[in-house]
Amino acid sequence: MSRTDGRKLVALAGTAIVGALGIGTIYLPFMADRDKLRGLFEEGEESIPEGARREIQAIIKAEAESQKRMEEVVQQQQHHEEEAQQQQQKQRSSPGSMWSSFRRKQ
């Protein structure tokens, strides 16, 4: 294999890579209807069965309630943490002797 053949091989491989990337970025998203390629077609709201629609709504409602409960728990935890910090500050700021920290605690 001569030096020229190697250069042609590299050029061919580079062209193939650029071509594959071009097809992947230009043709597939804009030209080819991927749903038709997969055998799927766009369906409207009326195509969803009533039972499935009720089940989806129940799931969405349960998730919203769960999220609301989680927010309440987080707020309670924050409130308890704030109270604990206030208690610590009150204990630290109590008046007393400047030498009280050097006394032995029994």
Concise overview:
The chain is 72% helix and 0% strand. It has 106 residues and is mainly α.
Number of helices: 3
- Alpha-beta content class: mainly alpha
Which range best describes the helical content: under 10%, 10-25%, 25-40%, 40-55%, 55-70% or over 70%? over 70%
Largest sheet: none
Q: How much is the average pLDDT?
A: 80
Shape: flat
Strand content: under 5%
- Order of secondary-structure elements: HHH
**Total beta strands:** 0
pLDDT below 50 for ≥5 consecutive residues: which ranges? none
End-to-end separation: 92 Å
Radius of gyration: 35 Å
Task: Describe what this molecule looks like in 3D.
With 106 residues, this protein is an all-alpha fold. It is flat. It has helices at 3-30, 34-38, 50-92. The protein starts with a helix and ends in a 14-residue tail after the last helix. 72% of the residues lie in helices and 0% in strands.
Topology:
Elements: H1 3-30, H2 34-38, H3 50-92
Which features would summarize this protein structure in a list?
mainly alpha, 106 residues, flat, 0% strand
